Amino acid sequence: MRASVTGSTRAFMVVALALVVPETGWTQAVSGAGMGPLDRAGLLAAFNDAQYFWQQTDVARQLAALGDRSVLPAIEPYLATNDRRRRSNAAFILAALGDERGVDILIGELEDTSADRAVDERSWQAQTTSDRYFAALLLGELRAKAAVPALSRATRDPTINYQAAYALGNIGDASATAALRAMVADFPDQRLWAAYALAAFGQRDAFTILEEESAGNPMWTNRRHAVELLGKIGNPLAIPILAKSLRDEHPNVRVALRARSAK
């Protein structure tokens, strides 16, 4: 006789599945109109022709996934551009392909607060924040341990500390613990992101913060972020917390969790 499965058990099964789905890397294929994934020459052309920096970022990830260092001479001229996010895209490719200049450039972009940059935002100050945020994102994606000291310092900067904390969680270097704990104490509105990094390091008390955020934060967007971050960590401690979120009053929180389980 087959045992029945209760709703609670089904919820735990859904959440457990969500936790074991790996994060995607740099493998999303970029395609041309009416064609399949682009080859090396096509990707270099797409990198050059991208209208927006985020389109260029998609191409940069695909070039990184190729693992072909012969693309570097074609990428290097972009290191001289004053469009800092496009410069960071080029640096990302260098770093992903083992060129140490890439991480150094991204750290420099993270720490550069000068006005000397191309401006698409409403002011150069806003552009600086966007550019530094983007550099932190790419450093986290690269899991660049050399960037941990700079990212730790950035946790003191309220304009980008949440992205710095997220990047530190992705890198997984526990030497950032003190900086992240200070961020939890000093920037309570951003503690969710610091707790993600601490939980990614395996620190159990950080799961308490994430549970409080996922269950009790009055903003559904923060509850959704907490659910997504708990799922990303992939630690069994997250399962009972996430199971409760399947009953969240806001559909977008529930959808975020179920969407991860469907990947």
3D architecture notes:
The structure is a single chain. This protein is mainly α and 263 residues long. It is 64% helix and 0% strand. The protein is built from 15 helices and no strands. It has helices at residues 7-20, 40-49, 53-66, 72-75, 84-96, 101-111, 124-142, 148-154, 161-171, 177-186, 191-200, 204-216, 220-233, 239-245, 251-261. Helix 8 (148-154) packs antiparallel against helix 9. The chain is globular and about 50 Å long. Mean pLDDT is 87; it is low at 1-22.
* Total beta strands: 0
Contiguous low-pLDDT stretches (5 residues minimum) are: 1-22
The share of residues in helices is: 55-70%
For the report, how would you describe the main beta sheet?
none
Count the DSSP helices. Answer: 15
Question: So what's the overall shape?
Answer: globular
The percentage of residues in β strands lies in: under 5%
Helix/strand structural class: mainly alpha
Oligomeric state of shown chains: single chain
Q: Measured on Cα atoms, how large is the radius of gyration?
A: 20 Å
Distance between termini? Answer: 32 Å
Order of helical and strand elements:
HHHHHHHHHHHHHHH
The averaged pLDDT comes out at: 87
Question: What topology does this entry show?
Answer:
Elements (H helix, E strand, L loop, with lengths): L6 H14 L19 H10 L3 H14 L5 H4 L8 H13 L4 H11 L12 H19 L5 H7 L6 H11 L5 H10 L4 H10 L3 H13 L3 H14 L5 H7 L5 H11 L2
